[in-house]
Design a protein that fits this description.
By secondary structure, the chain is an alpha/beta fold. It folds into 2 domains: 36 residues; 199 residues, 3-Layer(aba) Sandwich (Rossmann fold). The protein has 5 helices and 6 strands, in the order αβαβββαβαβα. Strands 2-3-1-4-5-6 form a 6-stranded mixed β-sheet. α4 links the parallel β5 and β6. The longest helix is centred in the N-terminal third of the chain and has 35 residues. The chain is elongated and about 95 Å long. The chain starts with a helix and ends in a 16-residue tail after the last helix. The site of magnesium ion has 6 residues, from α2. The site of magnesium ion (MG) has 6 residues, from α2.
C-alpha cells in the first residue's frame, strides 16, 4: 500500500514539474513576443517590388541613426540577425528595396540639396539621447522644409496643383529609444516645433529602437507611414501663405 502511495507521489511530482515547466515556457514566449517582436508584421513584408517607384528622403543630423534605420530595410532580415555598426555616410547613401509590390528608393544624407526631387515622404531622424542637439535638429529640419516649400511656392505661383512636391508627409523619427535617458517621442515632436508647417504637411512621429541585436521596434509603423501616409490635398489658399 505504502509502495503504491510513493509511486503516486512520484507521478504527482512529475506531472506538477512538467506543468510548471510548460507554464513557465508559455509565459516566457508571451513576454518574449511582446518585448522582442512587437514589429512582427515588418518581418513578414513581401520583399518584392513592381512597376511603381517611390523616393523617400531620410535626413537628420550626423549620427542620428539614419544608416542604422536603412540597414533594417533589407530583404529577409531576421529579428535576431546582428546589424553591423554603420560606417559614417559620405555624401549620399541610396538603398533600393522592393516592398509589397512597390520599388522604394531611400536617399540618406546630411545635406538638403539632394532631396529636392519628386519624393513621396521625408523621414527626419532625431537622436533621442541628445537633448542638447534638439535645437540644431529643429533648425536643420525647418531649413529643409522652408527650402522645400519655397520650391512648392514657385510651382504653385499659378495656384494650380504643383507637379510633385506639394503636401509631402513628414515622419519625425525619435531614434534610439532603447538607450537610457532617451526623450520620449512626444517630447521630441514638441521640440521640433512642427506646428509651424503642419498646415502644409501632415507630420507624424514614430519612436524606434534599433540596437545591433534583437529588440527592434518602430519599423512596422514607419513602413506603414512611408507606404500609406497621404499627401496633403492641394489647397489654393496656401499659395499666398508661402513666401516666394
Ligand atoms: N542602441 C542603438 N544604437 C543606435 C540606434 N540607431 C543608431 N544607433 C547607433 O548610433 C550610431 C550612429 O548611427 P548612424 O546610423 O550611423 O547615424 P547617421 O549618421 O544618422 O547615419 C551608430 O553607432 C549606430 O549603431 C538605435 O536605435 N539604438
Ligand atoms: Mg549615415
Amino acid at each position: 500500500m505504502s509502495e503504491k502511495n510513493s509511486v503516486n507521489d512520484k507521478i504527482v511530482v512529475l506531472v506538477g514539474g512538467i506543468g510548471t515547466a510548460l507554464a513557465a515556457y508559455t509565459i516566457y514566449k508571451i513576454v518574449n513576443r511582446y518585448f522582442e517582436n512587437n514589429d512582427g508584421k515588418f518581418y513578414k513584408i513581401k520583399w518584392k517590388g513592381g512597376a511603381i517607384r517611390r523616393k523617400v528622403v531620410v535626413l537628420g543630423l550626423p549620427g542620428a541613426g539614419k544608416s542604422r534605420l536603412l540597414q533594417c530595410f533589407q530583404p529577409d532580415l531576421t529579428l535576431h540577425q546582428e546589424l553591423p555598426n554603420p560606417a559614417p555616410t559620405i555624401g549620399l547613401n541610396i538603398v533600393s528595396v522592393g516592398m509589397s509590390g512597390i520599388d522604394y528608393h531611400f536617399f540618406e544624407g546630411d545635406h538638403i540639396e539632394h532631396w529636392q526631387m519628386d519624393i513621396s515622404a521625408l523621414v527626419w531622424l532625431v537622436d533621442s539621447t541628445q537633448p542638447e542637439t534638439f535645437h540644431l535638429s529643429r533648425a536643420a529640419l525647418h531649413a529643409c522644409v522652408s527650402s522645400f516649400d519655397h520650391l512648392v511656392a514657385m510651382e504653385t505661383k499659378e495656384c494650380s496643383p504643383p507637379s510633385s512636391l506639394y503636401g509631402v508627409p513628414i515622419v519625425v523619427v525619435a531614434a534610439k529609444q532603447d538607450l537610457p535617458g532617451s526623450s520620449c517621442p512626444a517630447d521630441i515632436l514638441k521640440a521640433m516645433k512642427t506646428d509651424e508647417f503642419s498646415s502644409r504637411h501632415k507630420v507624424y512621429i514614430v519612436g524606434t529602437r534599433l540596437p545591433a541585436t534583437g529588440g527592434r521596434a518602430g519599423l512596422w509603423r514607419l513602413y506603414e507611414l512611408i507606404a500609406y501616409a497621404p499627401v496633403k490635398a492641394f489647397n489654393p489658399n496656401e499659395c499666398s501663405s508661402v513666401d516666394c
